[in-house]
Amino acid sequence: MNPDAKSQLEPLLRAVALATQSLLMLDYDGTIAPFRQYPEQAFPYPGFSQLLQQVVRTGKTRLVIISGRDAREVVPLLKIQPHPEVWGLHGLQRLRPDGRIEVSPLDPAAVQALAGAKNWLFCQDLLYAAELKTGSIAVHWRGRSECEAEAIRGRVLPGWTIVAKETGLNLLEFNGGIEIRAPQADKGDAVRTILSEMNSDTPAAYLGDDATDERAFQALNGLGLSILVGPQWRSTSAQLWLKPPDEVLDLLNRWLQACQERDALSDDTRLEARV
Asked: Is 107 in contact with 114 (CB distance < 8 Å)?
């Protein structure tokens, strides 16, 4: 990790070491797991699940995954027991550690607009490349040739751009595809809800990689550290940039060490009290 990134992380990690509770929010694909052509094969980078499991077991950090996927897809990939809280569908869905699922209701107008977006794909013979989710539709071209990817994108955009403009749906490109989704909730809404459930002085961080994470960065800025994850820097609202997987793995290691320092400080305090 470059010295500048380390210097920006030091205040946060010191706060984690001193706090009774901290908050670590993570996007999934592209942040703690590599992109795969087949989403069901996108397991976390080596060592990530074990580190996150250890962080959870310290009892000092509330770990939350915030993903564009259905939350129920993320849990078996994480291999963390008990599984952490997972927000899916860009904040529309909340899967709690006890298994309860909450899904925000969709506006009927958004449902109708998404039907129009799906119909466009049908007319373009592109349903084979589509992932239909509650509140959104994603078209993927990851793993296809550059020529084929550009052809798919060129056929999706004309119709979806009109649908988004006329109905207020959000249209965002991501690494390997494009998604159109209802505006009822986004990752920023998830971050704000989670923060509202924590003490105002809780040390917090959010790590994400693409355009769908920008709302989360904006929601956290001023209240915690927002971190862009990616092989290259891009224009972003995030305060810090880390390259995956090594720099992210280093951060998780240091976060775990900070939680363990808190345990050591507590032990020292108890010992001093007995003396």
From this structure: no
